[in-house]
Design a protein that fits this description.
The chain is mainly alpha-helical. The chain is built from 14 helices and 3 strands.
Length: about 300
Amino acid sequence: MTSGDIARFGAYLAEEKGSSQNTISSYLRDVTQFAEYLHSSKDCSLREADSEMVQDYMNYTQNHGKSAASVTRFLASVKAFYNFLISGGVVADNPAKGLSAGKVERKYPEILTSREVELFLDQPHCVDDKGFRDRAMLELLYATGIRVSELISLNIDDVNLAAGYIRCTSKGKERIIPLYATAVKALQDYIRGVRPGLIASGEETALFVNMNGERMSRQGFWKIIKYYQEKAGIQKDITPHTLRHSFAVHLLENGADLRSIQEMLGHADISSTQIYTHVVKRQLKDVYRKAHPRA
């Protein structure tokens, strides 16, 4: 769907607008990179993007060293792309409308402290099927740092409890991610004691299912996250990606190397993983300012 929209946009620029090859290449590259960002960081498509996501991406590109000129060009590219989709009746609004490249500011992902993670993961009470399932999902998400789209796409055969890992496939690439003991135990309790009674059919391959016995949806999981955030009384805005970000930062803080984290997160480019080094440095500066008597 996304690639088709981008290809049609390229044909429109060439055939109807008569744009130069350089302009076409730049516009398509900008839109393609934005699409990849949406998939990896927001778990949505170009057609689902909103104004906040466009602004977040501009902040993200500046954090990764993009010049003001590059950010300005991106904004022009994405505005043109959405105007093209609007003219074709594909989307109703242009999420880039009204945005200015001059409003770009450094913005880092929300990170939970280790204590907040513990509090959050302790919320599902293992007294019924839902509690066991939810505990397994949250533990798995923090144990592996996978995207929510990858979580709900997991099949029962992707889990190896004996060896303590899951197999995650995204964009045609497979990666093996280890699990800590608590996550293995939570998955074991769910898979052996709860899932058989939840699935609507013995043919169901999904690892995680809703209370109707069918594969969990992204929207359903989002509601679960929000429910436990409120139950825990955590003021930070927790999303499925908050646990992914926290997973990466906590590994980095405890000595993991960037390449290993990149591999586990499934980042194609190391630059996407390097944002977490900036988060750690910022946190150290905050601690220094608060703790040093002369700071």
